[in-house]
Amino acid sequence: METQTAKTTSDVNEAKYPFELPKLEYDFDALEPVIDAVTMKLHHGKHHQAYVDKLNEAVEKNSDLQDKTLAEILSDLDSIPEDIRSAVRNNGGGHINHSMFWKTMKLNEGGKPSGELAAAIDSSFGSFEDFKTKFNDAGVKQFGSGWVFVVADGNSLKIQPLPNQDTPLQKGVEPIFGNDVWEHAYYLKYNNRRPEYLKAWWDVVDWDAVAQRFERIRTA
Fold it and tell me: What average pLDDT score do residues 35-63 get?
């Protein structure tokens, strides 16, 4: 697989119909052993592609939505016609959540945040280790499918679990990062051992990318 430049999360936020699957910046096996190549191929090429296709099918039915960005669409779901609202909510959320997810990862083998991001984590949660424990606990307790996000209010951070493909953008808040706890994200390697997946996932978090997103969001 050729390495290609992915759209940034902010680019996807501003994208309009027709929506496109962002390319990965790394090979499918780049995150092994934490995330295996087979899971990456299915997750990106099948699951995420399906969200994009179904989102386009829904938006195609309403020309008013075609002039709006994805962030605008998701932040005003009540205005979307009822016959396509669920499809837009689920598949638009799936598209924007996964676009962020791919940009949040690289193999860092246990790296840690630094600078303003590290200070915000310490201030909000006591320590980096306490933050990881609380984040993992929220992931384990998320019933069924969903995500665990981190959102920022200035320098204050908050862990926000959400079901299905819901996103904080539905409340007008862009997450600084999040982990996918749908079974398709981990089941081939970890089976039903979600806690093991959550613990291992920290070894592929790209803290430089998270710090850049944090800086952009908190100074916007």
Answer: 97
